[in-house]
Amino acid sequence: MVETLTREQVMAHRIAAQGLHRDRALDPLSSLGLQDSGPTARLALAARTDGEVDPVARGLVDGWTHRGAPHHHPPAERNEIAVAARPFDDADAGARLNWSGPEQRRVGIPAREAVDRAADALVEVVTEPMTKGAASGGVTKLLPDALLRDCRPCGCVHVNEQLFRLSAFPVGVGLDPTQKTLLLTPPPADWERPVEGDPARAARLVLDYLRVLGPAGPREVADFVGTSPTAFAPAWEQALPGLVEVSVEGRRAWLPAGDLDAALGAPDPDVVRLLPPLDPMLQARDRPLLVPDEALRKDLYKIIGNPGALLVDGEIVGTWRPRASGKKLTLELAPLLPLAPDARSRLDDEAERVAAARDLKLAGLTGQAGV
């Protein structure tokens, strides 16, 4: 018999599984990591822990992983993620590179070979910490013209950006975000470069996604990784024996079998949190389920300049934006509806956490019409 989960149960389960109750030892979401953009990772940690919110101080390492975006990961996960980031074949590599059929024919080099060529060049070039521009320039000199692009913003020709990013982590090239200018870092001395993509090990991504963003299906997981469901099917098939099917809003979805009871009995999501843009909660690919209100969903998921999400007792009920002036921070809130007095009182503590995570002093909250 297929269990049915309501949308409210799904939200409660995700909130608990992601540690947003602050009631468990913090797990930096294993192989999913924390996407890093400005203070995003610090604020995501502040929403989940009373402890250290600096990813570097917590010992996390940074690299271009899922979708070619920078993510913080536990060091112990680094090699496993490198294997998962290695395309299985040309179809998978082409999907991760966002190459259409005509683009692949224009390039004239199989997609996975292109990734390997760029990876070889990165290993040769990045032998010490260096800026992205310096690394890109060095790699560009080593690649055939077919793998280069005329970049209007840069006013020059250089290696295709997504190819550059997706080639880095499998060969151990990471990122150092602690300097004023982002630096690429050389592979660790003991780095083992994956020769082939391994669906059995990539199945770990499937399980981790479903553990914290499930129930979901193969399309959502593949989209998170940055490939197509067809290309990522080998990893899904490897994970499938450990999954259980459920029904959510009339659609089929899956959870790790050991998480079903937790989802059915998730605690009341009685938390107020100021989630930053790119927060793990917002990484769910079933966005209409996560944020049913279309206008709010469009506001949260812009191409650039996304606001944060206001999470109140199991629902995303609005947005927030930081306004910094000197060492002071004001948070501008935009709830869909007036917030209850209890929610408003709990927001004060969360706003203080946001300011502290950014090493600023909270000046106040604005934009709370009717609160």
UniProtKB/TrEMBL annotation:
Protein name: Crosslink repair DNA glycosylase YcaQ family protein
Organism, scientific name: Actinomycetospora aeridis
